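User: Helix-turn-helix domain-containing protein. Structure?
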Amino acid sequence: MTVAVRPGQKLTVDEVCAELQISRSTFYDWRQKGRGPRCIRLPNGSLRIRRGDFENWLMDCEDHS
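Assistant: Predicted structure:
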């Protein structure tokens, strides 16, 4: 899957879940445990994830064994 990246792009929770092929409940579980990517909480309560923060988080998740 090719993803067009715009500078400063913000992802929704649904977009992150689709990319990782996980459920929303898994995302929120990781978030509650402090294991998910950094999020921005908007005034309406919804979350956004900066593409750069998401990519950095993915690199941190790599298994280097």
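The first strand starts at residue 10 and ends at 12. The CA atoms of residues 29 and 36 lie 8 Å apart.
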